[in-house]
Amino acid sequence: MDLGNRLYELRKEKKISQEEVAEKLNVTRQTISKWETNQSQPDFDKIIPICELYEITTDILFGNTMERKSTINNQETFKMETKKKTAIVVSTSVFFYFIAVIWIILSTNFFLMNEIIAISIFLFICAIATVLLIYHFMSIPKQDEIRKKKSKQELEKYDGVIEIFFTFAYLLVSFITKAWHITWLIWIVCILVIEIVHLLIGTKESKDGK
After folding, report:
1. Domain ranges in the chain?
2. Is 3-63 assigned to CATH 1.10.10.10?
3. What CA–CA distance (Å, rounded) separates 140 from 204?
4. How far apart are CA 89 and CA 110, in angstroms?
5. Which of 4, 12, 61 is nearest to 37 (CA)?
6. pTM (global) more than 0.85
7. Distance between CA atoms of 15 and 11, rounded to whole angstroms?
8. pLDDT digits over 159-187, tens only?
9. How much is the pLDDT for 3?
10. Measured CA angle at 28 (ends 9, 36), to 5 deg
């Protein structure tokens, strides 16, 4: 396979457009088109940026197909493992948040515990959940991939559903327990859940079919 066809196939595998590649490499779209149709070849100073964009080595770019396939398989395995770990961490963190809310309600209304101690334990549990999330997402190596930004309307749609759920939960718990001075803490959990959703959407892989 010649270099032009290889560049074309690499771009299609990434599911990105010529305009996006041109923007990343600081060249024009016409230049990318000429490279892919073998009308011209990339300058020497563009070889490394091309390899970084497509996550390959120069050997792969210039013909080592077997190594390229192995690299792709390793990347897919890494992505699957990262998704599994993310699911576990997020589920565990959300569980801790709900445990924190249940704790604050029970401790102040049924256990008759001192409010300062109860709130301190509540914040400690929330801190554990937050640390788990932050550590996990900061420990994921930064991938040089094209990620699709979710629109503001889509985020607002998720936010609306979450806010409705927590409004219902707040009113229900408040009327049952009569602990209005404590149940406002549910809104802290609401904000944390919204931030988690934003974080997950922001780190989701792009499925741009251009």
Report:
1. 3-63, 77-203
2. no
3. 13
4. 31
5. 4
6. no
7. 6
8. 788 888 888 888 887 787 777 777 787 88
9. 81
10. 25
pLDDT digits (tens, 9 = 90+) for 52-94: 888 887 777 776 544 455 555 666 676 777 778 888 888 888 8
Kindly write down the DSSP assignment for every residue of the chain, as one continuous string. --HHHHHHHHHHHHT--HHHHHHHHTS-HHHHHHHHTTSS---HHHHHHHHHHHT--HHHHTT-HHHHHHHHHHHHHHHHHHHHHHHHHHHHHHHHHHHHHHHHHHHHHTS---HHHHHHHHHHHHHHHHHHHHHHHHHSPPP----PPPPHHHHHHHHHHHHHHHHHHHHHHHHHH--HHHHTTHHHHHHHHHHHHHHHHHHSPP----
The neighbour count for residue 73, using CB atoms within 10 Å, is 10
Q: What is the pLDDT of residues 110-120, one digit of tens each?
A: 777 777 787 78
CA distance 62 to 60: 5
Q: How far apart are CA 38 and CA 36, in angstroms?
A: 6
Enter the tokens of residue 156.
């607002």
**CA–CA distance, 109 with 185 (Å, rounded to integer):** 14
Type of residue found at 86: T
Q: Which of 78, 86, 79, 75 is nearest to 138 (CA)?
A: 86
Per the listing, tokens 């940026």 go with 49
